[in-house]
Amino acid sequence: MTLQKTNLSAQNSELYAQLFAQTRLAQHASRLLANASSDSKNAALQQMAIQLLRHESLILEANALDIEQATARGMKQNLLDRLTLTPARLQTIAAGVEAVVALPDPIGVTLASWQLSNGMQMEKRSVPLGVIVMIYEARPNVTVDAASLTIKTGNAVVLRGSSDALRTNRAITKALREALQHSHLPIDAIQLVEFTEHEAVDYLVRMNETVDLVIPRGGAGLIQSVLQKSTVPVIETGVGNCHVYVDSEADPEMATRITLNAKTQRPSVCNSTETLLVHEKIAPDWLPQMLTHLHEHGVELHGCERTRALAPQLAIIPANQDDWATEYLDLKLAVKIVADVEEAIEHITNYGTRHTESIVTRSEETAALFLQRIDATAVYHNASTRLTDGFVYGFGAEIGISTQKLHARGPMGLQALTSYKYIGYGNGQIVQ
Amino acid sequence: MTLQKTNLSAQNSELYAQLFAQTRLAQHASRLLANASSDSKNAALQQMAIQLLRHESLILEANALDIEQATARGMKQNLLDRLTLTPARLQTIAAGVEAVVALPDPIGVTLASWQLSNGMQMEKRSVPLGVIVMIYEARPNVTVDAASLTIKTGNAVVLRGSSDALRTNRAITKALREALQHSHLPIDAIQLVEFTEHEAVDYLVRMNETVDLVIPRGGAGLIQSVLQKSTVPVIETGVGNCHVYVDSEADPEMATRITLNAKTQRPSVCNSTETLLVHEKIAPDWLPQMLTHLHEHGVELHGCERTRALAPQLAIIPANQDDWATEYLDLKLAVKIVADVEEAIEHITNYGTRHTESIVTRSEETAALFLQRIDATAVYHNASTRLTDGFVYGFGAEIGISTQKLHARGPMGLQALTSYKYIGYGNGQIVQ
C-alpha cells in the first residue's frame, strides 16, 4: 500500500523500505515523546549540550574529513566556511541548545477553553506535530538546531543533511542520541538518514503515513525540488527578494543608514535587500550620494535609466526585468526611481517574494498605506529588512523563515512546530 | 516559466493558459478584497443572499437540467439528493449566507503586539490567504458556502465543482458575482471553473504563482488525487475512521446512547463511528443488548470472535483487518472486545485516522489517559463522535474538517482562511 502511494517505481524498493522503517521508528518515538514532561525534555537538552562537548574530538575529526573531501571536490569557500566546525563554534552550538532549555514548553498549553451550548466543556490544547523531516545543506549547526527544537516541542526528527557533511552529522547525531538515552527518552526521536542517494529525498517527502511535516532549508533549487515532489505538507522557507522604498518624505540620513544596512550588513541572507526604490522627488538630492556610498562598500549597482543618469561616473549597469526579479544574495543592488508610493507598491507586488519590505518616510499616512497594502511576511516602517529574524523578534529560537501563508509565516519559533487538538469533557452529549 | 513549473506536458496549453488567466484575475481581485472594510464585505454578503433568491427560478431551472442529466447517467439516489435544490433549500442556503454577516471579521485583527529590545514596536496582524481553490463534488450548497466564507475573510475563490452540477453552479455564481458588483467589490473574487476536463484540476493545484491554498472536499479518492498532484498547500479534509471505546467503568445507559448516536444518527458523515471497542469486563453484561439494539436499527455488524460468541443469534460477520481500517460511511459497524484501555489506545493508534475518538467511562483517571494519549483532531470523554462540527463548536461556520496537523486541525471556521503578517514600526532600527 505504501509503495503504491508513492507513485514511484519500486526499482529501489530496498532503499524505500529502509527509509520507511526509519521514519516508522521516528513515529513510534514521537508518540512517547508527545507525552514526555517538560522537565524530562529539558533534561535531555541539557544532556545534548554536555554530550556535544564530550564528543568534541570525534566530531571535529569527522568534520576535518568532511572538509578534506569537500575541498578536494572543489567546494566554494563560503560553503566550506559553513561546513567548518571549531572548538569555539561547537561551544556556541552547545550554548544554543542550552538556551532552548530556558524557553517555555509550548506543548500541553490550553490555547482556548469554552462551553458548548449542549453543556460540553471544550479545551483546545497544543500538541506536537509528530515526525518532522529536515532536508538541508552542509551546515552541521542546522543538525543540532533542528534536533534541539524538535525535542523541545515533543516531535521526532529525521535529518537529511548534505552528503558533504555526512561524517560530521553522524558524529553529532551519535552524541545527541546518547543524550536521549541518558535522559530515558527514546533515542529514535533523532534519526540521521545516511543514504546519500538523491532518491532518498524523493521517497521521504512522500511518506504521508509516517511523516507529518517536511522542512527544506537551503537554496531555491532545493526548496523547489522538495515542493514539486512532496505529498507531505511542506513549509517553504527562504527566498527573499526584499525592497527598501525611500519615500519623498524620508529622513535622508535614516534612509542612508537603513539602505546600507539592508544591503551590506550580510548580503548572503534572505532578508537582505535586493532592490532599492526611490521616490522621484527625493532622488536628485539623495540618491547620488547613496549610490556613491554603496559603490564604496563594494556594491555592484544595476539601475534604471534615471538612476544611471544621476551618477554617470559610477558606470551603473543597466537594469532589466531580471534584475527586478532576482535575489542576488550578493553585494549587488538594483535601483529604480518611482513616481510615488503607488508605483513602489505595484513594483513590490509584481516582483517581490512576500518576504520583507520596508518604507522609509516621515509621513504616517504614506507608511500606513504601504504597511497595509504590501502583502509580505514582514513590513517595516523606518527599519532595515535585515530585522526579520526569530531571535530579533524575541522568539528565542528560529527553525527558519517561512515564506508561505499557511500554518506559520515569517520567523518560526517553537510554536511553528506544534499543532493542537480539541478535548471535549461531556456527560453523555449526543447530536440530536 | 509557469509551464515549466508544472512539469506537465504542454499538450493542452490552451486549457492551462485559460485557467491560469482565471486564477490571475482572482489574484488581482484578492488584493483589492484584502483591503475591503468589514462593512463592505458584509454588504456584499447581504447582497449575495438577496441575489440568490432573486435568481431562484434561473437557479432551479439549471438545477433541474443537472438532475435530469445526472439521473440519466445513473447517479445514486443519495448523491442526487445532495445535488437537488428546492425553493426551501435555497432559502436555507441564503439564510446561511446572512448568518455569516453576523460573525466577527477575522481580518485586520491585532493578534499580538510587543516591543523588540531595539525599541521597534511589533504587531502581528491577521490577513487573508489570497486565492483559494475549492475542489468538490456535486453539492451546490458548497458553492455558496465556499464563496460566502472566502469573501467574508477577504479571499478570492476559484470554484471547481463537479461537472454534474455545472449548470447549477453557473447560475449560482452568476447571482453571487452580481452581488459583488452591486456592492462595488471585484466580481473576479468569485470564479467558476467551467472546464470539465479532468486535467483542469491537475493544472489548478500546481499554480503556486497565483493560488495560495487548495481545499478538496469530497471522498477519499478525490482528496488523495489532489494531495498526490498538488504543489500548492492543501488542507486535507474528511476521512474519519472514528471509534467509541466503552470502558469497564462506563455508565451502561450512557454508553448505549452514545454508541447508537455515533453510529446511526447520520452514518454517511466523517464523524460517525466505524468501530466500537469494548472492555472485556463490561462486554458480557452490556454488549449483547447493545448489539441487538444496533441490529434493530439496521446496522450490519462485523465482530471479533469474542463479540460474535456473545450474540450468536445475530449471525455477526467475522471482522478482519480490513474492517478495522475501513471508513464504512454506512450502517455498518465493526466491534472488538479489548483487554483494557491500553489495547483500545493501541488499536486506535494503529487503525484510526486521527479524526474523532471517544471514551465512555466514569473513571476520570482512565479518561485522562485516553484524552492525553490519543492523537486525534478531537477526543471526547462521555460524548458522541458526531459532535465534531464547526457549528456545534460555536464557530458559526465550517469550511470543512481538517484531518491534518498543519495550519488548521479539526472543524475549520473563518480563522482557518486567514494568515498573518508582522508589522514593525521603527525609528531607524538596523541590525548591528
UniProtKB/TrEMBL annotation, chains A, B:
Pfam families: Aldedh
Group of enzyme by EC: oxidoreductase
Coiled-coil residues: none
UniProt pathway annotation: Amino-acid biosynthesis; L-proline biosynthesis; L-glutamate 5-semialdehyde from L-glutamate: step 2/2
Keyword tRNA processing: no
Main location: cytoplasm
Record keywords, A-Z: Amino-acid biosynthesis, Cytoplasm, NADP, Oxidoreductase, Proline biosynthesis
EC number: 1.2.1.41
Subcellular localization, as worded in the UniProt entry: Cytoplasm
Gene3D superfamilies for the chain: Aldehyde Dehydrogenase, Chain A, domain 1 (3.40.605.10), Aldehyde Dehydrogenase, Chain A, domain 2 (3.40.309.10)
The keyword NADP is annotated on this UniProt entry: yes
Domain Aldehyde dehydrogenase: residue ranges: 26-296
Molecular-function GO terms, alphabetical: glutamate-5-semialdehyde dehydrogenase activity; NADP binding
Summary of the function given for this chain in its UniProt record: Catalyzes the NADPH-dependent reduction of L-glutamate 5-phosphate into L-glutamate 5-semialdehyde and phosphate. The product spontaneously undergoes cyclization to form 1-pyrroline-5-carboxylate.
Family per similarity comment: Belongs to the gamma-glutamyl phosphate reductase family.
Descriptive protein name: Gamma-glutamyl phosphate reductase
